[in-house]
Amino acid sequence: MRVNEFFDELRALDQHNVGSWPAWAYVGAVVILSAVLLGLGSWYFVLPKGDELDRARQQETSLRAEFERKQKKVANLDAYKEQLAEMRQTFGDLLRQLPSQTEVPNLLNDISQTRLASGLEEELFKPRPELVKDFYAVLPNDLVVTGSYHELGAFVSGVAALPRIVTLDNVSIQPAEDSQGQELRMSVVANTYRYLDGDETAGTTEDDQ
């Protein structure tokens, strides 16, 4: 069939009587109609579903990452519990290094004995009012001593070796008067600490409120 004859027969088809069409025209019309319907269906139904599928995939990736993070936390839960127990043990050990109120005089005596053992002369040892914190109190003490460089070093080392916590702040070292540079004068604030008992802690909380 030539091209001209094909188009002539195509124009001659009766649109109102499809049953009279030849087989090739009928099959071609069905194929074209199917392609149009398939295209329209893809445009209106498949493409929007593709966007939803992409969003679902992104959500799946996000949920999977969140699941993996939570799974790691669960896997490390025992390790976290062990670390917490160790931290509590360490905190308890540090807390035991804070004396009670009745033990503070003994701690101050230990500082004085350390000063004597180091060979220092005491010019001043004056306690200040204590400073109350959350669960402990700070007891500052103004201390002025004189001695040689090595004696001062021995005193500082001795204080650091005490079983109770003592910190030395505001340290000032100058040549002692009338010593011709042979002795040094050290001014320092020796901070001791004590823990607050239950009644003191409760009273502090009520005052804060």
TrEMBL record:
It holds the Pfam family PilO. Keywords: Coiled coil, Membrane, Transmembrane, Transmembrane helix. The keyword Nucleotide-binding does not apply. InterPro entries: PilO, Transl_elong_EF1B/ribsomal_bS6. It comes from the Bacteria. The chain crosses the membrane at residues 23-47. Residues 53-97 form a coiled coil. This is Type 4a pilus biogenesis protein PilO.
